Amino acid sequence: MTHTNTLNQVEKGVSKTSQHLMGTGLIIGIVLIGMFSFTALIALSGYADDLRNKDNGQAHALSSSAIGFAGLKILLENLDVEIRTDSEKPLYGEIDTLRIYTLDSAYQTDGLDTLDPNDPKLIVLPKWSVMPMPKVQGWVQKLPYRDLQAARPLASNLETLTGELTINRIGKTGGDLTQEHVFSFVNNGTPYQGYHSRLQTFNSETLIPIITVEKDDILLAKVPDSQTYILSDPDFLNTAGLDKRSKARFSVSMLNYIMSETKTSSIRLDLSLHGISSKRNMIKLFTQPPFLSVTIIIMALIALLGWQAFIRFGDPKKGSDIDFGADRSIGPQSLASTTAEFLAIARREPLLMPDYAALIRKQAQYALQGQSRLSVSSDSLLDSRERGRNITPTFETLKTEANAVTQRHEMTRVATALQKWKKEITE
Fold it and tell me: Transmembrane segments in this chain: where (predicted)?
C-alpha cells in the first residue's frame, strides 16, 4: 500500500513538472527565441563579408603588417586630411578625390585598365614577396628564397597603361642592402636624403618624371594626358616606410604635391583591387534605405496577422469541457459561404445552375431508393412518378431553364422551383 502511494506521488510530481515545463510562457519564449535566432542568422549571412577580419597582411589600407597601409591612414588622419577606405569602384567623374591604388602583385594591374584616366589617382607598385607569419594574425615575413617580386612581369603588365618601361632595384645583390639615396622634385629640385632598402625605381621614355633619384632613375612619374601618377617603391607610403619622421615628412610632401596638381581635397584608399569590395545581395538591399521602410512594413504586417490569428482562435484549452455539438459544422459552412462569395464577386454563379439541377435530381433518387447504388431504373421511376402525380413544371423544363439562366434573380426562381419539384416527388 505504501509502495502504491509512493508511485502515485511520483507520478503526480512528474505530471506537475511536465505541465510546468510545457507551460504557455515557455512555448511562447521558445517560439520568440527561434524567430529571433533565425532572423539574426539571415541578417548576419548577408553582412558576413563586411564583418570578416580584413587584416590579412597584404598591401592594402586595412592591413597593419609592414607592407600594409594602415599606418598611412593613421598618419593622414592625425594631420586632419580627409581620408577613408573605399571598397566601391569610383564614381564617374570623381575629380575632387585622389584615389590611391596599392598593388599586391603584378597580376592586379589588369584592374587598372578600366579606370578613367581623367580621375585623379596614385598607383603604388608592388615590391616585396611575402607570406603569412605562422600563429600571428596579420603579420607577414619575406620569402626565404625570393624576397622581391619579379620585375619583368610587372613592367610587362604595366605597358598598356604606361608604355614601355624598365624596373630597377638598387642594392639588389652584394654588400649592404640598405643604402643612402638623394631624391629631388624635378620642378624645384628640393632634395631629400634618406636610407632605403632595395630601392625600386623605373626608367621610361613616355612617363613624365616628378621625383628622381641620383642617376635619373624615376621614383614618382605622371602618365601623359591623364591625372594618373605612379609611385615605383611602396616603402614610401607603407607602414614599414614610415618608421622615421624624415621619411614621413617626405611622403606627406609627395602627396601634397599630387593633391595640389590634381586640385583634390580628400584621399580614398581603394580596396576594390584586393577583393574586399562590398558585395551586394538581397539581404543588404532590403535592410538598407530606401527599401528598409518596406521591410519594416512587411514585418509589421506579419506581426499583425499573427496577432489577429491568435485573437481569432484564442486559447485552445478554453471551453474544452463544453460539448460543441452542431458548432462543428461551422467549418464546412464557412468554407461554402466563402466559396459562394468568391463566385458572386467573379459573376460565375449562373454557371452552377446545370450542376445544381443534376444535384437535385440525384437527391430525389436517393430519397426514393435509399443509399444504395443508383441504377438505370431510378430514372424511369422518377419519370413515372412525375407523370403519375402530374407535377408541373417537369424536371426537363426546369433543367432547360437552369441551362438558360444568366441573372441572379432567375437563379433564385429556378432553384426555388427545383426544391418544390423535389418535395412533391419525394413525399
Answer: 20-44, 290-310
Place of cell 603604388: 124
Q: How far apart are CA 239 and CA 72, in angstroms?
A: 7
- Provide the pLDDT confidence category of residue 320 given band limits of 50, 70 and 90: very low
Q: Record the cell numbers describing residue 87, joined without a space.
A: 571598397
3-class SS of residue 121: strand
Domain count, the chain: 4
* Residue 101 bridge partners (DSSP): 123
Whether residues 184 and 103 share a domain: the answer is yes
Question: Can you give the pLDDT at residue 351?
Answer: 87
- Tell me the C-alpha distance between 160 and 164, whole Å: 8
Compute the distance between CA of residue 95 and CA of residue 224 in angstroms, rounded to an integer. Answer: 17
Q: Are residues 70 and 148 in the same domain?
A: yes
Question: What are the helix (H) ranges across 210-291?
Answer: 245-262, 282-286
| Beta bridge mates, 197 | 178
> Over 70: is that where the pLDDT of 372 sits?
no
Query: Is the residue at 17 inside a domain?
Result: no
Contact 126, 59 (CB under 8 A): yes
Cα–Cα distance measured from residue 326 to residue 405, given in angstroms and rounded to the nearest whole number:
35
Q: State which H helix or E strand residue 299 sits in.
A: helix 292-313
